[in-house]
Specification:
four-stranded antiparallel beta sheet; Elongation Factor Tu (Ef-tu), domain 3; OB fold (Dihydrolipoamide Acetyltransferase, E2P); 425 residues; Helix Hairpins; alpha+beta; 33% strand
Length: 425
């Protein structure tokens, strides 16, 4: 009986040993990926806030009582739009009176130009014709006296008529010079019109002091006035944020300073309008660092502002900090080990063994890491995390790199090389 038991136990042990040897000798199937060529774009991801380029306080220039407030907070306004009007009946009447004076002066000048000068010219021509006729009559009277058929009295009368005609010509010439362009009457009418226009401009200026207009298109951020209230000269009534352009303020960690530069493009998405991304660019990087938070202020400029963008709106920003060559060698991010420690390596299949290969890495994004040294295009690398160097392995399923970074396979401890991948702020 004991002998049978020993035989059975021996058989079981032999089967177990053989099974273990078979398992040990059979390579394990692992997920793999081939080294491929593609371009990597390194980015810095951060949260920002929309800021108007300026917050412009608008005020009236005089003391007065508010007659009308034409806007509310949040209203979009156009350049030149009336915002606030002060009550000033006197200034309105002054403008009307000055405008009437301009009309009157314009009418007088038109009369001088259109009627006075032509009439004076006509009178001058007639006076010259009269003078010519009077001189002919005088010459005829002189001839008759010389021939003995005329009298001296008749000749003297014709001479007086010549003198009268010559005086009429001189008077007509003076009148024409005065009414013609450059003449005193014309110049006086022009001066009167200029004085009337100046008075109108002054009246309008005084009227404008009681009106507050938008200097540019924008949005009303604050309205600190109500109809009927009395305000002082220079008191801010509304605050306007110009429509274009606008800025976005980020506060990334100071460690990201090495990767940021003025002019870098950025993709921006407003949290409330995630289906409408837009572009911005780095405009300014503050020269100082917040010593308490350890952050630096970065300003992005949005030149083509979407209509939905509002001051103080929260946005997600992805600043492009670098690009690799289009044919760079890359592997899935999950395949690179010890990326943070500065001595990254990968495992590749070599004679059915997991072989450790040290690599030099370049840029990285949420999906791929650039390999600068250590691998060639077409090499097969292991992606499974629980494989150790020396393990017996065989090529299994191809690792599927997800399109959406949020769906990427977990890769604890692999946030990316510091010089390539920025973090969130």
């Amino acid at each position: 009986m004991k002998r049978k038991v020993l035989i059975i136990v021996g058989i079981l042990l032999a089967v177990a040993v053989i099974g273990a040897l078979v398992v040990w000798a059979t390579p394990r199937a692992v997920s793999v990926a081939e080294v491929q060529e593609r371009q990597i774009v390194a980015t810095l991801v951060a949260t920002g806030f929309v800021e108007p380029v300026a917050r412009v306080p608008l005020a009236a220039e005089v003391v007065g009582q508010v007659r009308e407030v034409a806007v509310e907070e949040g209203d979009e306004v156009e350049a030149g739009q009336l915002l606030v009007e002060l009550d000033d009946e006197e200034s309105r009447l002054s403008v009307m009176q000055a405008r009437a004076a301009v009309d009157e002066a314009q009418a007088r000048l038109s009369s001088v130009v259109d009627q006075g000068a032509p009439t004076a010219l006509q009178e001058l021509n007639q006076a010259m014709l009269n003078l010519e006729a009077a001189e002919e009559e005088y010459q005829r009277a002189q001839t008759l006296v010389e021939e003995g058929v005329g009298t001296e009295a008749e000749a003297d009368e014709r001479r007086r008529q010549v003198e009268q005609a010559r005086t009429a010509v001189n008077r007509a010439q003076t009148q024409y010079r005065q009414t013609a362009d450059g003449g005193s009457t014309h110049d006086e009418a022009v001066a009167q019109l200029e004085r009337a226009r100046a008075e109108l401009e002054l009246a309008r200026y005084r009227r404008q002091q009681h009106l507050v207009y938008a200097p540019s298109a924008g949005i009303i951020l604050n309205r600190d006035v109500e109809e009927g209230s009395t305000i002082q000269a220079g008191e801010a009534l509304v605050i306007l944020a110009p429509a274009d352009p606008v800025d976005i303020r980020l506060s990334p960690d100071e460690r990201e300073l090495a990767y940021l530069d003025v002019g870098q493009p950025a993709h921006v998405v407003a949290d409330a309008f995630r289906d409408q991304p837009f572009m911005a660019r780095v405009r300014r990087i503050d020269p100082t660092v917040d010593p308490e938070a350890g952050t630096v202020s970065v300003i992005l400029r949005v030149d083509d502002k979407p209509q939905f963008l509002r001051p103080d709106m929260t946005v997600s920003v992805e600043v492009e900090t670098a690009r690799s060559e289009e044919d760079s060698l890359v592997v899935p991010r999950a395949a690179v080990r010890d990326l943070v420690e500065g001595e990254p390596y990968i495992l590749r299949i070599q004679e059915r063994r997991a072989q450790r290969v040290a690599v030099a890495v370049g840029l990285s994004d949420d999906r791929f890491v650039e390999i600068e040294e250590g691998l060639q295009a077409g090499d097969v690398v292991i992606v499974d995390e629980d494989v150790e160097p020396g393990d017996r392995v065989r090529r299994g399923d191809e690792f599927d790199v997800p399109d959406d970074p949020d769906e990427a396979a977990p890769s604890p401890g692999l946030p990316g090389p510091p010089r390539a991948q920025g973090g969130s702020s």
